[in-house]
Amino acid sequence: MTFFTVYRRVLGLLAPERRIVLWLAAANLVLATLPFLEPLLFGKVVDTLAASGGRAPADVWADAIVLLGIWGLVGVGGIVANMLVALHADRLAHRNRLAAMRNFFEHVLQLSVAFHTRTHSGRLLKIMLQGSDHLFGLWLAFFREHLATFVSLIVLLPLALWLNWRLGLLLVGLIVVFCSLTVFVVRRAEAAQTEVESQHSELAERTGDALANVLLIQSFVRLAAEVRQLGDVMQRLLAAQFPVLNWWALATILAQSTSTVTVIAIFLLGTALHLEGKASVGEIVMFMGFATLLIGRLEHAMSFVSRLFFQMAAIADFFSVLDARPGVTEKADAIELARAEGTVTFEDVTFAYDPGRPALRDISFSVAPGETVALVGPTGAGKSSTLGLLFRLWDPQSGRITIDGHDIRDLTLESLRRNIGVVFQESALFYRSIAENLRVGRPDATQEEMEAAARAAQAHAFIMRQPAGYETPIGERGVTLSGGERQRLAIARAILKDPPILVLDEATSALDSVTERLVQQALAAVTRGRTTFIIAHRLSTIRDADRILVFEDGRVIEQGPYRELIAADGTFARLVRTQYGAAAVGSAEEPGST
Ligand SMILES: Nc1ncnc2c1ncn2[C@@H]1O[C@H](COP(=O)(O)OP(=O)(O)O)[C@@H](O)[C@H]1O
Ligand SMILES: [Mg+2]
After folding, report:
1. pTM score
2. Do 257 and 129 share a structural domain?
3. pLDDT in tens, 489-539
4. Residue 240 lies in a domain
5. Per residue in 415-436, pLDDT tens?
6. Whether residues 401 and 441 fall in one domain
7. How far is the CA of 533 from the centre of ligand 2 (A)?
8. Are residues 487 and 506 in the same domain?
9. CB neighbours (10 Å) of residue 48?
10. Can you tell me which atom of ligand 1 is nearest the CA of 383?
């Protein structure tokens, strides 16, 4: 994105507030024009006084009063316009900064898991906060300075040329030098500043990552190393930043010298013209006033271009996140799926995270409503990926998945995901109270319903032992709870959501064997009447399933009920033998937990 595209887009964000923007622009026009009237009036006053010698005092007074009256009006107009800007520009900027943040937040939360896998949350947070701050600053500066500066330059130059074209040309020269300097520096320093910004993001990413892993850092005595690595990033940042600063320093010095030279030139040229009778003293005074104003404006322009320059990369990052499209999209005419019956089919589904390295190949199976299906196989075989496709974390490259005969890509994402409850091995919890965490899938659940779900998940007892029961806040990502407790909350949350399709991805792996047995019993109750997918290693779960899908290397290599698979004496039978001993295959009794 180029400099001006970004600037235009920043201002374009204000489009919904067009009316107030137009008012502010008008006020700016007034503010920009008024200061020019002052040197004009000043020059007139000087000329009136200079020519007063041979005139009647009453005439001189009459002229002076008219001029002073106009001057007074100019002052009042300025105050009114200033008030309008002061009152509304700030409000506008504050309002839109929060709106920009909200849009960013909403947008980012819809982006695909793939996007979030690539992009660290620390980086996103930095982009959001810094981006919206910069937008805020730019909007404010636009209404307080930029616009007035543009208008001044546009109004001032023709006026100056009209008043005295010889002196006016000097000012034109001044502007040309300023603009060339700015363009030159921006061109030179642009790439370096992008590098600076990427180091800034790196910094945010590293600190965010470290803060999220304090336990890891302390237990592995990583403090010194982490701080040192942060120092390295800072070194790189400064190394990239310093050359840019040099360019701008050079530009500032040159700009200031140009201003001084211009003022001196006006004085010299003015004196010469005056001696030749081509300019009055008033005109020269007026011009000095103009030149000072113009130089002030140009310096403003230069400083805001440089400020915008330093913020450009951060704002461009902000926009590029906004431009990222969700990997999984909803069709315009997507169907709203009411409560599903729970028939799920996979038809020749092939899927790869990275092109050319398929994680799943030709997966086909069909599950009837209420059936419980166990997915077994070694780590990395594709079990989680298969279930991720079911609620559209990703879309397969080929093949299709249907629920009750609907291709899931034809359903609204909301209704698809409302019909599926998920419990992962790593239970994600909000930094909020237990009750809020339980209600995420069903915000309107009553206290009784919530407690019933917690009881079913064997969680009620430990929740009641917390200092404030259901209202107890749990630490970031649930750090105040044990792994088993977090897991039971996640299960209770899924039970409370009461979906027709349930996905349990190693949901009970974090539990001790006693609790696991209890939760398994609870799960047996909640899986009844629901289509359930269980990824589990525990033999009892596998054995109780209506059907078993055996995964290996991204394929389903065997499927059928437990007894059939054992009787077939294939991969599954071998797996059970090595994991649970030969006895497990034959006997009905379950061996000790793994
Ligand atoms: N987000 C991801 N990005 C890239 N590759 C992934 C991702 N998640 C899993 N994989 C890869 O896909 C394959 C299947 O993984 P997964 O479905 O998690 O296996 P399982 O659940 O059976 O252990 C593995 O090779 C794994 O490395
Ligand atoms: Mg897995």
Report:
1. 0.78
2. yes
3. 998 999 999 999 999 998 877 778 887 877 777 777 778 889 999 998 887
4. yes
5. 999 999 998 877 788 989 999 9
6. no
7. 12
8. no
9. 18
10. 22
